[in-house]
């Protein structure tokens, strides 16, 4: 699952918050299939953790621009 | 060499600062946020770590609202010029450094009026003096936390409360206090906190930052690449990217992170106490010297780690030169980039010799400096 965020800072924040909850996340450049991919960044998480990742983002004030795919990476 | 010019920049730096700087240069000095390869991500993580450490030091709940700048001056310029508009009034004090005074003067050309809050004879700005300058158009109060000449620490918490009660923005110039005087942005109602990275925070030169309270919108002083949202012709509307156009000083920020760790370990209050003890000892040692005037508060507890001396019969640059060449002591002479405080203290012509110890100075070094000064002045009276 790819979670597109608005900046590298937010991607790092997301990765760290998820890491504290035991979820391994990876910062990646958004693929062109993601809307407004440009130079944007996404966080790749296991599909099973996507709901938790959404909650983490909400709690931390990280804006999610979009979510895509079901690949766990 | 005995270095007593920490008010200009701290030296030496803790080992951790060297180590973090070198580690960055050797291992991961890629461009943070300009790709997602592993080095770029490590770089971005290091920058985030430094933001988190700074947030911890200043009581900031949102580290992403700390923007890195190249120094405190850039931070102050960003806060002032990115917010103030024609018709706004700005309050500063008559003790400000040129980093506050010059942008304020420059903003007059854009229709921003600056009003000066008067300091007392010790160079301290009382909250009531700020209150006196309020107008219906006051948009911002920008004050130094402590004077880089007199050393007096202003009561920013009381002034911050005044600003908050009147719906006025409060920017604090923490050039002489960040790292050696505790600062809490919530407690002191600070909307914008400008700080250098290379003074009390012990980081490398070329580092500094600006904290911007949630909800404040600042026009960037420069536009450019931010690594993300590249499809937009405009700068992003979120921090830190909005105010960090272009590549940031990664090695400097990594080193700064080391410095902030050091400060957090020691405690800014303990570092400040150490510096005040050194100054107290120094002042006691020179108390009997003839023709020496000490600028700033008599009560050393009201001082940051700065003391400036004026010699009635000797030029400040000459004294500083002798301290350097003959005694191996580094101090600063002149107006210290603060003609306002020079005028306030009546030393615009003579300037002053500033002695600013740091965390690594010892009592013995300050004793030596006092002795050296007495030797210089003794010769004058022979």
Can you tell me about this structure?
The complex is a heterodimer of chains A (73) and B (382). By secondary structure, chain A is of the alpha+beta class. Chain A contains 2 helices and 4 strands, in the order E-H-E-E-H-E. Chain A has a 4-stranded antiparallel beta sheet with strand order 2-3-1-4, with helices on one face. Chain A is globular. The mean pLDDT of chain A is 89. With 382 residues, chain B is an alpha/beta fold. In chain B, 37% of the residues lie in helices and 15% in strands. In chain B, the strands form 3 sheets. Chain B has a 7-stranded mixed beta sheet, sandwiched between helices. A 4-stranded antiparallel beta sheet of chain B has the order 9-10-13-12, covered by helices on one side. The longest helix of chain B is centred in the first third of the chain and has 21 residues, at 38-58. The chains are: A alpha+beta (73), B alpha/beta (382). The interface between A and B is medium-sized, with 20 and 23 residues.
Give a short account of the largest sheet of chain A. Answer: 4 strands, antiparallel
Radius of gyration of chain A: 11 Å
Unreliable runs of chain A, pLDDT <50, ≥5 residues?
A: none
Assign a percent range to the helix content of chain B.
25-40%
Globally, the shape of chain B reads: globular
**N-end to C-end Cα span of chain B:** 28 Å
Structural class from helices and strands of chain B? alpha/beta
Shape of chain A: globular
For the largest beta sheet of chain B, what order do the strands appear in spatially? 2-8-7-6-5-3-4
Largest beta sheet of chain A: what is the strand line-up? 2-3-1-4
Secondary structural class of chain A: alpha+beta
Roughly how many Å apart are the termini of chain A? 8 Å
Quaternary? heterodimer
